[in-house]
Amino acid sequence: MTHATVDILVSGAGIAGMVTAAGLARAGFSVCIVDPSVPADSADAAGSDLRSTAYLRPARALFDRLGLWETLAPHATPLEVLRVIDTTGWPPAERERRSFEARDLGHDSFGWNIPNWRTRRELAAILSEMPRVDLRLGTGFSEMLVRDREARVRLDDGTHLTARLVLGADGRASPVRQATGIGVDTTRYGQTALAFAVTHPVPHGNISTEIYNSGGAFTTVPLPDHDGQPASAIVWMDDGPRSAELRAGPAETFAETLRLRSCDILGRMTPVTPIRAWPVITQTAHRMTARRTAILAEAAHVLPPIGAQGLNTSLVDVALLLNLAERHRETLGGDEMLAAFEKGRTRDVHARAAVIDLFNRVCKSDRPLAQAARTAGLSAVHGLAPLRRKIMRAGLGDTEVRSDRGGLPR
């Protein structure tokens, strides 16, 4: 049996967990980060996360602050235009189309898109070279005993650690959250999200598109060219049984349904990666802290994949946590620091979850009244320029909120 002492244990080496570990280490804390899985080194590798994240401007500011963007930038594709198409029936018939341009906000782009598997691979490489980081991939959190000034943790390889602060960034079934007894509220929609990458004959023009139809949103996000062809990441939400039927059926049927669902906006799409599936839920933790412990990212909140809010919301957690850790360096993990984190994030998390929940219900509905409201709302938002800019800024987190209120640093 081995034993080690660190300032902070991070359970979960997903993107949020690794960004947290990098930021804490750069601030001078000793960090051990553990995860039972190992990052995939390619899109085709077993278990690779084929979701793609559009890092909005506040997230980019955090990456710049931590010195991470230089490594990620070569893999990023800018999002210059957000296009929304409302449809009805099957095959989908277009009812309304609107485009929102970053230049309306005085920016060159709304954000930058990178496949999750690639981001995680690059971050793992960075952490492996950082002197204050003990990166233990293939090893997970098992249990802990919390005392007034520390937490004693056992990992699943039998190792024991003592830490002043334990952070759970270990996913929607978070072992750390379960160990603290923090409960969750979960809403299920009967939807499944399919994530994969495609090539297509029509260049994407750095445009991300959301197409609404019964079953949920269908989203295309621009990627770098693949083998000389334009490429995009796809997130396709639909009723669970329908998604399962498509995945299990003939490739030709899937390809034709994909063409129809995409309204042929980029021409016939050809999948170039495996197709991953996961259930769409909204899940929020009853609280985000416990004694000597904080939970963040999907351990604390899971949102439907709409408007790039999921991981970007997680990075707001990270930014506030880093600010508080530096401010409470001598009392790291104490009640005052954790109370500030709870206060700074809970209201924002629940507000975002409520908005995305409502938006998803409206987007997936095939009821005429819901469809009419969706179309009318889209037209109104786009038609009134001041309202459009305000909503765009709010959706992007570009509100210049103070970092001690839960926002990213300016």
Automatic annotation (TrEMBL):
One of its GO terms (molecular function) is monooxygenase activity. Belongs to the UbiH/COQ6 family. Keywords: FAD, Flavoprotein, Monooxygenase, Oxidoreductase. InterPro entries: FAD-bd, FAD/NAD-bd_sf, UbiH/COQ6, UbiH/COQ6_monooxygenase. Residues 6-347 form the FAD-binding domain. Pathway: Cofactor biosynthesis; ubiquinone biosynthesis. Pfam families: FAD_binding_3. Its cofactor is FAD. This is 2-octaprenyl-6-methoxyphenol hydroxylase. It comes from Tranquillimonas rosea. GO terms for biological process: ubiquinone biosynthetic process. The lineage of its organism: Bacteria, Pseudomonadati, Pseudomonadota, Alphaproteobacteria, Rhodobacterales.
